[in-house]
Amino acid sequence: MTGSMPRKAALAAWIGSALEYYDFFIYGTAAALVFGKVFFPASSPATGTLLALATFGVGYLARPVGAFVLGHVGDRFGRKRVLVFTLLLMGFATFCVGCLPTYASVGVLAPVLLVVLRLLQGLSAAGEQAGANSMSLEHAPEHRRAYFTSFTLSGTQAGQILATAIFLPVAALPQQDLLTWGWRLPFWASALVVVVGFVIRRKLDETPVFERTEVAKLPVAILFRQHWADVLRVIVAATIASVSTIFTVYALSYAVNTIGLSRTPMLWVGVLANIVALAAIPLLAGLADRVGRKPVFITGCLACGVLIFPYLWSISIGSYALLFVLGIALFGVAYSGVNGVWPALYGEMFSARVRLSGMAIGTQIGFAVAGFAPSVVAAIGSGKQDWLGVAIFTAAVCVVAALAAATARETHRVPTAHLGGAAPAAPSTVVASAVDG
User: Fold this and answer.
1) pLDDT of 28-71, one tens digit each?
2) What is the chain's percent helix, strand, coil content, to nearest 5?
3) Which residue in 86, 187, 161 sits closest to 130, CA to CA?
4) In this predicted model, what pLDDT tens digit does every residue of 276-322 receive, in sequence order?
5) What value, to the nearest 5°, has the Cα angle with vertex 49 and ends 48 and 51?
6) What is the distance between the alpha carbons of residues 313 and 310, in angstroms, rounded to a whole number?
């Protein structure tokens, strides 16, 4: 494939992913710092914060539903429709959060509206990455699919960095200003990203692979009949995201609340790791285009399983120098071996008829399991020496994810039209068929 379309598709994926994780970060920060006081003031401070954080988790409830619905739309009607819809829905819901009335103005209606908007965000997020990955993969040159699909994950790092840059000065406002109008600014700022992303995405062409594909009326039925093992494989492999949730949630809480380290240096570990990941993700994805998806992904999993031990140990002894070096090595480099490759590894397991559904359903279930990892490791213990049990649990997840990937086919040399065991269709074939094809 020649021309600028692969770059446009990669940029469109980057923009959407940046918006999704920008929203993810500012919502979580606002829930921790502001929403308890703004939307749940009738509760005690601790209960208000708990309720506010619960609204953050509500978004995950909508993701499996969104994966089935948007996966069907993307495999039935095209990737472009999903990408435009998810971008507009995410932008609309995020902007509206910034416009919500407070509990003091409308009472219980305020938190109800907050939950509704969070559900809309969850629906959007379920189809965003799978749609972006499918679009960029199918537009990419045959020999550079991992590189071009990796921009979806580079966008996640950029979104977190952007959110930090915007929320830090907002959080420094006087308390009264923060609670009245200051917290709204980051949510309103998402409109700028939506406008840029919409302009880019509406100019995208539908992928040639999809246009030549025999379209099924119920793609999900074909998915679970012909690719059930691949869906299961993606679910298990996607639990490697537990490394991310343990690094960003558990390790931060362990360092600050248990060991007593300063919050600011711990936040900067994440920021610097994300900056390193911006460079590491495309580099490691490019390596996967040369040596294969499985070697890079599996090495990334196992490296995370090894590095989690010295990283948590460095926190337990309070060594800022060590935890910075090890944290960047773990999350900025080793985990980038996973993030840079999984869009191609997972997407190439499926034929174009069911690719978006397979990726959306598999990843969202796996990510949901990973979302509970901090709760699981918290049950292991909260003492200063309990880090070892947490590290063992994390390493076990890494090994299981690596084993799941090891059972997959190596696809870096398989032509795009043949992925998922598909036979290339005639160029003019675009047929709506029955479920049995």
Assistant:
1) 778 767 888 888 876 666 666 567 656 666 777 788 888 999 99
2) 80, 0, 20
3) 86
4) 999 999 999 999 999 999 999 999 999 999 999 999 999 999 999 99
5) 65
6) 5
The span from the CA of 91 to the CA of 101, in Å, is 18
- Name the nearest CA neighbour of 386 among 246, 258, 257: 258
Query: Are 119 and 62 a contacting pair, CB within 8 Å?
Result: yes
- The helix (run of H) or strand (run of E) holding residue 257 is none
Q: How far is CA 245 from CA 175, 224, 335, in A?
A: 29, 29, 12
Structure-derived torsion over alpha carbons of residues 3, 9, 15, 17, reported in degrees to the nearest 10? -150
d(CA 243, CA 118): 24
pTM (2 d.p.): 0.84
Residue burial 223-259, b: 16+ Cβ < 10 Å; e: rest: beebbeebbebbbbbbbbbbbbbbbbbbbbebbbebe
What SS3 string covers 344-362? HHHHCCCCCCCHHHHHHHH
- The token duo for 170 is 């907002």
Residue 171's CB is within 10 A of a number of other CB atoms, namely 15
- Which of 85, 86, 96, 88 shows the shortest CA–CA distance to 118? 96
Distances 342 to 13, 298, 375, 419 between C-alpha atoms, Å:
14, 10, 25, 15
Query: Using CA atoms, how far apart are residues 349 and 218, in angstroms rounded to an integer?
Result: 19
Residue type, 273: A
Handedness of CA 204, 207, 211, 217 (dihedral sign): negative
Here the tokens at position 103 are 């509990």
C-beta of residue 162 within 8 angstroms of C-beta of residue 19: no
Cα-based angle 414, 277, 14 (whole degrees, multiple of 5): 65
Which DSSP string do the residues of 179-199 spell out, in sequence order? IIIITHHHHHHHHHHHHHHHH
Closest of 116, 124, 62 to residue 368, by C-alpha:
62
